[in-house]
Write a structure and sequence with these properties.
Layout (H helix, E strand, L loop, with lengths): L1 H29 L3 E6 L1 H5 L3 H13 L3 E6 L2 H10 L6 E2 L2 E2 L3 H11 L2
Parallel strand pairs: 1-2
Antiparallel strand pairs: 3-4
């Protein structure tokens, strides 16, 4: 049993070293580059959002500059519902009216 565990840990170590050696050139090629990451407002509500944040932090720690662009449709919809404000849509895009602007700004943290 101990021999099998040693073989397993050795195999795992070899796999890690293999992965790291093959990843290093890719990491070096992207250091000091800028990535634009876009995610919808639904991502913030998803159970895996914490993992996304950890991945974003990892990219930053590897020397990648990040621009985060996030949507807020669910948050805006909720805020407008709570304020009892209806807004029109044109081609699946919200038309932000003067009456809805304050609710939209509150939803996105402005």
């Amino acid at each position: 049993m101990a021999n099998q565990m040693t073989e397993t840990s050795h195999s795992t170590t070899q796999d890690y070293v293999h992965w790291f050696r093959h990843s290093a050139p890719y990491i070096n090629a992207h250091r000091d580059k800028t990535f634009v990451l876009m995610f919808g407002g639904e991502a913030v509500l998803h159970q895996n959002f914490q993992h996304i944040i950890h991945d974003i932090a990892l990219l930053h720690s590897l020397g990648i500059r990040l621009i985060l662009v996030h949507g807020a449709r669910p948050q805006i919809n909720q805020n407008l519902r709570e304020s009892q404000i209806e807004t029109p849509f044109h081609q699946s895009r919200r038309v932000t009216t003067r009456a809805s602007l304050r609710s939209v700004m509150n939803a996105v943290g402005s």
